[in-house]
């Protein structure tokens, strides 16, 4: 009778509430279940859904998801790299790398605003001060990277981008006092030697090689190594979305670059030049920005579904393909030293990935292979005897 009265009590009659009461104690546990009419937060609703360009990949099988993500990464980023080098191949455009970054930031801000309007939660979660820091680092990363193409070949720039591990490890040692294992050190050593070898080859065969480009891309690499940690920490701490991060960081960065170009009198010559070549500058810049924006969406989806290990492998293959296409579509001197130094950098990337996933990647040791071969010989001898 006591239980029957409790079950008919007003507390248990409320929708979405279930009370578990015990006769031996006055304490009870209340479990609240939201009703169907209550709207769930879009951040919670989309935990199991991976939506890229309005397409829900969760409805497809794993092989189909992998094929779609890899196809998107290769297609959009290969076009991105081709258009970036094509813009700088326009005669007279090389001094205007910062203006290209300004136009790119403007397009990214528009894309982020459109994407933010398509989701339900439009609130800004990350503080403005954090966005000012992220915007400054983003300006340094993309601005210096675009400007370096006025002094370096595109393959050399891509090789430098593959070696982000080097400034990350140096910063970890001097700032955080970290210690790295022998695999990490070997990875950094392979990347450093490959990078030096590739740069020396570029300085030997390229008639317009300039050390300024090396300094610019190195500074861009340092900023790129810092910005990833800052973005990840901010998004996890404040639960911010990708579209929010893109909109505010690139719009603030747009103001930074606009103010800098106005102060250095670099805005007027760039606008004058681009107005004379609107298709080769603004037209290519729009496609360049659009493909870059789409490409990062597929990379994030690849990381979310299959993990960072497979994503790094795919993006490394994409960068290698970009270098090959650069030599095929754009006339530039070539030497076999490019191949050997590039393979050395790829070896460093593999060692870095292996170091972070040693528990997942089990490479057989020489002793294990020798024991296995001995056991196989013994089993074959025993079978022949029988």
UniProtKB/TrEMBL annotation:
Q: Superkingdom of this entry's organism?
A: Eukaryota
Membrane topology listed for this record: Multi-pass membrane protein
Keywords, A to Z? Membrane, Transmembrane, Transmembrane helix, Transport
Task: Give the chief site where it resides.
Answer: membrane
Q: Name one GO molecular function term.
A: 3'-phosphoadenosine 5'-phosphosulfate transmembrane transporter activity
Q: Where are the transmembrane segments?
A: 64-84, 96-119, 131-152, 158-175, 182-200, 206-227, 247-270, 282-302, 309-331, 337-354
Which Pfam family, just one, is annotated for this protein?
A: UAA
Q: Which GO terms describe its cellular component?
A: endoplasmic reticulum membrane; Golgi membrane
Family the entry assigns: Belongs to the nucleotide-sugar transporter family. SLC35B subfamily.
Name of this protein: Adenosine 3'-phospho 5'-phosphosulfate transporter 2
The species this protein was found in: Vidua chalybeata
What would be the name of the gene that encodes this protein? Slc35b3
């Amino acid at each position: 009778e006591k239980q029957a009265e409790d079950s008919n009590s007003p507390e248990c009659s409320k929708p979405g509430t279930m009370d578990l009461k015990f006769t031996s104690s006055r304490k009870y546990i209340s479990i609240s279940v939201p009703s169907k009419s209550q709207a769930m937060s879009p951040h919670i609703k989309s935990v199991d859904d991976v939506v890229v360009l309005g397409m829900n990949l969760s409805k497809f099988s794993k092989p189909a998801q992998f094929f779609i993500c890899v196809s998107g990464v290769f297609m959009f980023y290969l076009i991105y790299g081709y258009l970036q080098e094509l813009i700088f191949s326009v005669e007279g455009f090389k001094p205007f790398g910062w203006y290209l970054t300004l136009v790119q930031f403007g397009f990214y801000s528009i894309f982020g605003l459109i994407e933010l309007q398509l989701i339900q939660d439009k609130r800004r979660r990350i503080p403005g001060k954090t966005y000012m820091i992220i915007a400054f680092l983003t300006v340094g990363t993309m601005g210096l990277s675009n400007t370096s193409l006025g002094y370096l070949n595109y393959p050399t720039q891509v090789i430098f981008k593959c070696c982000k591990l080097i400034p990350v490890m140096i910063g970890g040692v001097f700032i955080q006092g970290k210690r790295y294992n022998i695999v990490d050190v070997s990875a950094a050593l392979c990347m450093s030697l490959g990078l030096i070898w590739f740069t020396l080859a570029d300085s030997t065969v390229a008639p317009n090689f300039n050390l300024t480009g090396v300094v610019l891309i190195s500074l861009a690499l340092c900023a790129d190594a810092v910005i990833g940690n800052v973005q990840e920490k901010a998004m996890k701490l404040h639960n911010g979305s990708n579209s929010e991060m893109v909109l505010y960081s690139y719009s603030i960065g747009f103001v930074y670059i606009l103010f800098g170009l106005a102060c250095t009198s670099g805005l007027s010559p760039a606008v004058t030049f681009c107005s004379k070549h609107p298709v080769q500058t603004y037209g290519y810049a729009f496609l360049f920005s659009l493909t870059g924006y789409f490409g990062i969406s597929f990379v994030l989806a690849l990381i979310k579904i299959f993990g960072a290990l497979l994503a790094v492998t795919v993006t490394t293959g994409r960068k290698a393909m970009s270098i090959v296409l650069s030599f095929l579509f754009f006339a530039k001197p070539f030497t076999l030293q490019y191949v050997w130094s590039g393979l050395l950098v790829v070896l460093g990337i593999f060692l870095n990935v292996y170091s972070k996933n040693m528990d997942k990647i089990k490479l057989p040791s020489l002793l294990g292979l020798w024991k296995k071969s001995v056991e196989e010989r013994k089993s074959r001898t025993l079978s022949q005897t029988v």
